[in-house]
UniProtKB/TrEMBL annotation:
Signal peptide: none annotated. Keywords: DNA-binding, Transcription, Transcription regulation. The keyword DNA-binding applies. The keyword Oxidoreductase does not apply. This is IclR family transcriptional regulator. PANTHER family: HELIX-TURN-HELIX TRANSCRIPTIONAL REGULATOR, ICLR FAMILY, HTH-TYPE TRANSCRIPTIONAL REPRESSOR ALLR. Residues 68-213 form the IclR-ED domain. Residues 6-67 form the HTH iclR-type domain.
């Protein structure tokens, strides 16, 4: 801690991170041990976070992340979209296909940013807000591949006709971005994805990840 930082705020944020990392919640004693502070401090932190709906406690007294974080989360998408747009524009123009950034939203893959190429005669119409199951389409499958290889490089994923007849997709997951689970990809009207597209998508995903760090 430095003179310019707030110890109380730091502890509050650490509480939220600890709760976000567990599916079963944490007791006051468990939080006290993890934070290295006494139970009284934890009670005060939880009470403050509860007032803002960022934390809730169940009947057993275990603290969990509250629904208030959803309101904060809704503001993340515009910031992520803005950071990703330069890489998506470059990708769309280079490949001549619709480029997109897709994030996990519950059990779905949600397109939060889409850029269409300016020079092609035709391309796939793919809109921000489009959602689909994670196990269908290149965008979702790329995310799942990163989950299966958390410490390796999952590369890119190719699909054909899974979301739209006659359309092929390529996507690569975002890697090394804390709190963001997603992928960058392209969708095109083709029977197969050209060989150079996969590595190019991986490069674009890396550019977006760097912009978000």
């Amino acid at each position: 801690m430095t003179a310019e930082t707030s110890q109380t705020l730091d502890r509050g944020l650490r509480v939220l991170k600890l709760l976000a990392d567990t599916d079963h919640g944490l007791t006051v004693t468990e939080l006290s041990n993890k934070l290295g502070v006494n139970r009284t401090v934890v009670y005060r932190l939880l009470a403050t976070l509860e007032q803002h709906a960022l934390v809730r406690r169940d009947l057993g007294g275990r603290a969990r992340v509250g629904l208030g974080v959803l309101g904060l989360g809704r503001q993340v998408h515009p910031l992520v979209r803005e950071a990703a747009l330069p890489a998506l524009r470059s990708l769309a123009e280079d490949i001549g296909a619709t480029a997109h950034l897709t994030l996990v939203d519950g059990s779905d893959a949600l397109a939060v940013a889409v850029v269409e190429p300016t020079w092609t005669d035709y391309h796939v119409a793919y809109r921000a807000g489009f959602r689909h199951a994670l196990d269908r389409g290149a965008a979702g499958k790329a995310i799942l591949s990163a989950r299966q290889k958390p410490f390796g490089d999952p590369g890119y994923t190719l699909t054909h006709g899974e979301l739209e007849a006659g359309a092929s997709g390529a996507a690569a997951p975002l890697l090394g971005v804390t709190g963001v689970e997603g992928s960058v990809g392209v969708v095109m009207l083709a029977d197969a994805v050209p060989e150079r597209v996969g590595p190019r998508v991986v490069d674009a995903a890396r550019e977006v990840a760097e912009a978000l760090r």
